[in-house]
Design brief:
Keywords: Signal. This protein is mainly beta. It contains one helix and eleven strands, in the order H-E-E-E-E-E-E-E-E-E-E-E.
């Protein structure tokens, strides 16, 4: 009987040690952990949202979907984040009056690279709408 209690005590102590002391990288040491998100809502000429999520490996994934503001597939639609080049939205992603979800990965960037910048959409080279990207805290 005494041997069973000792074995159970050792097993519990080892489990507590393993669970509590093997965390190699505590979250508290990372000022902005991957998974941080920024967003921008469009509510005027365009209706929809774009989100920016920081992933591991210094990659930020931009994802957008819109329900209004894209009246035809024949126009050239582009978006631009201030400081970066324009990106063309393929006509296959346009389903008037909106778009399907589309994404782009930005390598060697953090979420701070996007927060506070402006996201602008263009139709045939003319600005449709611009909004500021907001960081979720």
């Amino acid at each position: 009987m005494n041997q069973k209690i000792t074995f159970a005590t050792i097993l519990v102590a080892f489990s507590v040690f393993f669970i509590c002391f093997t965390n190699a990288s505590p979250i508290e040491l990372s000022p902005r952990a991957p998974g941080d998100v920024a967003y921008v809502d469009f509510t005027k000429s365009i209706r929809g949202r774009a989100t920016f999520t920081e992933l591991y490996g210094k990659i930020v994934r931009a994802l957008g979907q819109f329900s209004e503001g894209f009246p035809d597939r024949t126009s050239k639609y582009e978006y631009q984040i201030s400081g970066l080049d324009r990106t063309v939205i393929p006509s296959t992603d346009i389903f008037p009056p909106g778009t399907i979800a589309f994404q782009e990965d930005h390598k060697n960037k953090t979420i701070k690279s996007f927060a506070g910048k402006t996201l602008t959409f263009y139709r045939n080279g003319k600005i449709i709408e611009s909004e500021i990207i907001k960081l979720i805290k």
